[in-house]
Amino acid sequence: MPIEIDRLNTELLRMADENAPGREFSAAIAELARSERFAQLEQVLPAVVYEELWERYRLDPAGFVQEWEQLAHEMQQGFIQHARQRLTSLTRLQQAGPDSTPAWQSIQRALDSQQNDLLRAAVAQELLDLIEPAVARATHLRECVVASPSSEEADRYLDEATRCYFFALFTACAVMCRSVLEEAIKQKLPDGIKSLIRARYRNAPTLGNLLHEVNNNLRASGIDPGFPRLANLVNDIGKKAVHQGLLSGDEARNCLQNARSALQMLLQG
């Protein structure tokens, strides 16, 4: 039975609309402010929200009432849209300034003061939007089968790199691909080369450092001669991710596939 993402999204919007009475809330604030009963809000709002609203009201009572009346009109269809804007504001730097917090965020904070239902709905919708693109990206990959294990840490790095790719965190994916190869190489190298690396790089070698030592000690390391070429491709795109800007989906996919192929070559026996 196919999962209908649009149907899930419609049901989410319906549930959020039922559980977030923003229009009534906004209209009540406007009415209490218009009738000079603003102090009654102190008993029902979180202190930080009340203080923020009081400061707005004190500076411009007429403008405050007009703003909240307008919000009451707009909020009927705006619950999750506002919540998603609020969620996005948590992920980015915000410019400081007088009255920098939008009024709709005050509504969000007040309505979410106990259960966080609006933020929950916003996160749910964000994740629903990711499902189809993530499924499409997952079809580009096959299981990464190796002959010998590396380490639990390498497995976690690969898991995180792959999930970053699924969910469009392309730059993070490339950074984690470098990390998984660093960990896998350190686990694979003979003890003598490990000691040399610890001394030479103060126990903190980069992937580039490790590949340099592998190239210089290829026979002693026991690593497949084709491994450094693939690993260098991963290192190059990883350095681009760190130093030159955000990556595209194609770049992340190529980086991840090269990392997985390199792991299979490294752990072939």
Write up this protein.
The structure is a single chain. With 269 residues, the chain is mainly α. It folds into two domains: 5-122, no CATH class; 144-266, Nucleotidyltransferases  domain 2 (Four Helix Bundle (Hemerythrin (Met), subunit A)). It is built from 14 helices and no strands. Helix 1 runs antiparallel to helix 7, helix 8 (152-166) packs antiparallel against helix 14 and helix 11 runs antiparallel to helix 13. The longest helix has 22 residues, at 117-138. It is elongated and about 85 Å long. It starts with a helix and ends with a helix. The model has no long low-confidence stretch (mean pLDDT 86).
